[in-house]
Protein: Phosphotransferase enzyme family protein
Organism: Paenibacillus alvei
Amino acid sequence: MITKMHVENMLQEYMDDTVESYRLIDNSWEDEYRYVAIVKTTSGEHIVLKCYNNSYTDSSKIAGWARLASVYRRNGIATPQFYCSKIGAYGSVITIGNKQFHYWAEEFMSAKTLDDLEIDLEDLGSEFLYQVGACVGSMHSAAKREGIEFTWSSPYVLLDPDEENYNDALTWYEKLRYSPADVRLVEEIWEIYNRKREYLEAIFPSLPAGGVQGDFSTNNILVNEEKGFAGIIDYNLAGNDKFVTYMMQEGIFLSFECYREEWLDREKCAYMEQRFKHYYIGYTQQYSLTDAERGAVTILYNIIRPFRMDKVDTTLRKAEEGLWQEVNERLRWMHYELTREDILAFLEN
């Protein structure tokens, strides 16, 4: 769909230069079209053009993402600069094949992502998780200090109407409540989960919020030649979130889920918990948690850790295969993680 002529026209909205060559990445799926062009200009410059047609990208959001990235950069975080067009706007509009696309231009970052280099996060030491946590903490401190807030939420916000965590938990409950699994344990887990959510809802207004990058995943984390943390890219999921819930969700994903095999035994879980602790230490050295945020850490862990989508999906797949002993083992693990009260003490001692 995107031709060299389109890339040329988009480029010239931002600079007086022409395209020597470009590499087009098609990230389209379902009902959205997302194209990224990595352009080399005739003057030898490199620039990234992003061109999206979907329900969540518009010029006002692009301007907000640009502002957030600018704040991060001023505070020493390695992340791309967004370029202003010749008319002073960050976002522009182009029609391609009867579809309206929003596009913008970003600085090209020479460092590669973990996924680009095919580096598994589990092969990197805890120091890397510390560096990631420190970056997230620096981001949140900068956004809080400079009052960066958006009128839209990041997609994975807890307690939003369409939140993934509750939908996954509800699917888990509805599929297991009348199954051959230990339904007494299913009901107990469900009751505890909802009780903890109610508590979280009560304290939620007291938790500081602001703009977050929105997608701290391995395809966006940059690494240097020594396999150290080198920066972060991609803002198309940036929006508002509670800082502590975002920190916990990303930390749990990076510390517990990025492994070639799933581990639920206590020894391996203890190893992953140490990695999470390094992430948390890095974060809290850069961002000072309020008392309300510290008070939310354990309950956020309880709700997020056992009910991540991959954990729920694996449990339901085992149920479909009739492996009820394994399902019940997973239920006991979920109950343990859901009822733990030692998380904050572990992380801070």
Remarks:
- The chain has a mean pLDDT of 97.
- The chain is about 45% helix and 15% strand.
- The first helix runs from residue 4 to 12.
- The two ends are 55 Å apart (CA to CA).
